């Protein structure tokens, strides 16, 4: 039985990955992680010593590079958005069909909390339509927020952007068209959950 324990673990991991990928919508990345762990278990079970060493070194290098890149990003995130912020720009983070990904749902949860706490603030939801998506990310975010009780008049949809630069450029244009004026001294990263998700809050007057 002990000799088959690794196989049982692999089967459980793959089954869990399948559930998260096809049943629990929005957990694709977690499903991929579980599947990767299962593959690594099989690999280390059957691969030769030299190959295991090479792969282990590559994994360690990859992890170090990830940490080096990610730590400065997290440290640079600012969560001190001003309470009198008139607009927040919410960047898309992927859809599964028309359902927000887990990352996007976390972002939307933070946005919802901010909007509920700041009834005069308007959200610009920005994102075009990518592969595997049946509607634009901007529209999907708008639908999600409206379903949670946010008045449509407090949501501006930007649905043409295909990159972060376009997200910001097109969103600023819509804000200016709505009567907002960008104040460079009032830039803040904002995430109501205290995490860096790429949401951006900027003060306008």
Give me the oligomer status.
single chain
Q: Compute the number of helices.
A: 6
Strand order of the largest sheet: 5-4-1-7-6
Give the DSSP E fraction (strand runs of 2 or more residues).
15-25%
Please report the total strand number as a whole number: 7
Net shape: elongated
First CA to last CA: what distance? 69 Å
The ordered string of helix (H) and strand (E) elements is HHHEEEHEHEHEE
The percentage helix is 40-55%
Rg measurement, Å: 21 Å
Low-confidence stretches: 183-205
User: Helix- and strand-based class?
Assistant: alpha/beta
Question: What do these coordinates show?
Answer:
- With 205 residues, this protein is α/β, with parallel strands linked by helices.
- Helices cover 52% and strands 15% of the residues.
- The protein is built from six helices and seven strands; from the N terminus they run H-H-H-E-E-E-H-E-H-E-H-E-E.
- It has a five-stranded mixed β-sheet with strand order 5-4-1-7-6, sandwiched between helices.
- Strand 2 and strand 3 form a beta hairpin.
- It is elongated, with a radius of gyration of 21 Å.
Secondary structure layout plus pairing:
Blueprint: H1 5-22, H2 28-46, H3 49-76, E1 87-91, E2 95-96, E3 99-100, H4 102-117, E4 122-126, H5 137-147, E5 155-158, H6 164-177, E6 182-189, E7 200-204
Parallel strand pairs: 1-4, 4-5
Antiparallel strand pairs: 1-7, 2-3, 6-7
Helix pairs in contact: 1-2
């Amino acid at each position: 039985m002990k000799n088959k324990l690794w196989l049982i673990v692999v089967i459980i991991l793959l089954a869990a990955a399948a559930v998260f990928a096809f049943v629990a919508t929005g957990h694709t990345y977690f499903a991929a992680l579980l599947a990767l762990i299962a593959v690594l278990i099989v690999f280390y079970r059957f691969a030769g010593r030299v190959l295991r060493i090479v792969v282990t070194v590559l994994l360690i290098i990859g992890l170090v590079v990830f940490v080096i890149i990610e730590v400065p990003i997290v440290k640079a995130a600012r969560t001190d958005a001003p309470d009198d912020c008139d607009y927040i720009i919410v960047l898309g983070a992927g859809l599964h069909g028309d359902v927000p990904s887990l990352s996007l749902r976390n972002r939307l949860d933070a946005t919802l909390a901010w909007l509920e706490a700041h009834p005069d603030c308007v959200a610009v939801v920005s994102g075009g339509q990518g592969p595997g998506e049946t509607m634009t990310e901007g529209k999907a975010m708008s639908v999600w927020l409206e379903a949670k009780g946010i008045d449509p008049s407090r949501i501006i949809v930007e649905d043409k952007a295909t990159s972060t630069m376009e997200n910001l450029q097109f969103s600023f244009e819509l804000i200016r068209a709505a009567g907002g004026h960008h104040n460079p001294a009032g830039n803040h990263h904002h995430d109501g959950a205290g995490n860096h998700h790429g949401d951006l809050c900027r003060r306008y007057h």
